[in-house]
Design brief:
Elements (H helix, E strand, L loop, with lengths): L2 H10 L4 H8 L2 E6 L4 E3 L7 E7 L2 E6 L5 E7 L4 E2 L2 H6 L6 E4 L3 E7 H10 L1 H27 L2 H11 L1 H6 L2 H8 L3 H14 L1
Antiparallel strand pairs: 1-8, 2-7, 3-6, 3-8, 4-5, 4-7
Length: 193
């Protein structure tokens, strides 16, 4: 169950076998069925989830009932409402499964304990947060500086696996577009080629 998680750890930081045993004792496996919630807006996010198998999404719904997808998470990715996890305040986002999922959960208490006892875990977390911040900054730059066509082409170039596994209306939501607008963007790109 933890194969992808430990492979990701070992690919980023040089964890010893003893470190792996300590970390494993702090993990909780979880399975979700398609459309099942991992976290609902308003609840406190008490864990970070690593995706072993499947696809999750994080989103909010505005006052008009329109869904705004903030993040997708596929195999090898982490997902949480980080603000809620760190502050223990109610979550702003809902997280649910787009596909059946197998997850590895790190609870808030386990996370704090691992930060205290394993410096390599702290290094790994720092690298994960840094990577997430860089991805967020790239996304914001894309939104303010690229045309819709360029944004979509960049998205499919960076995340071809998401495009293959996630419905187009969800990709439209992630991009801040209506499904109809995304369809027109895709047609314009196709007609240019």
């Amino acid at each position: 169950m933890y194969n992808a998680f430990f492979q990701t750890l070992k690919n980023t930081v040089d964890f010893s076998e003893e470190d792996i045993v300590v970390i494993k004792n702090h993990l909780t496996p979880k399975k979700l069925r398609k459309k099942q919630y991992l976290l609902q807006e308003g609840d406190v996010c008490k864990f970070v989830a690593f995706v072993e198998k499947g696809v999750l999404r994080s989103y909010s719904i505005d006052e008009k009932g329109i869904e705004h997808i903030i993040q997708f998470a596929l195999e090898g990715w982490l997902i949480a409402d980080l603000y809620s996890f760190l502050t223990m305040e109610p979550a702003t986002y809902t997280i649910d499964a787009i596909e059946d999922c197998e997850l590895v959960l790190i609870s808030k208490s386990a996370h704090e304990e691992l930060l205290k006892t394993l410096p390599k875990y702290e290094s790994w977390i720092r690298l994960q947060i840094t990577g997430a911040y860089i991805a967020l900054q790239k996304r914001l730059t894309s939104i303010i500086s690229l045309t819709l066509e360029e944004r979509y082409e960049s998205f499919i170039s960076l995340y071809p696996h998401i495009v293959q596994r996630v419905p187009q209306h969800m990709i439209a939501s992630y991009m801040g577009l209506s499904p109809e607008t995304l369809s027109r963007v895709r047609k314009r790109i196709t007609s240019r080629k």
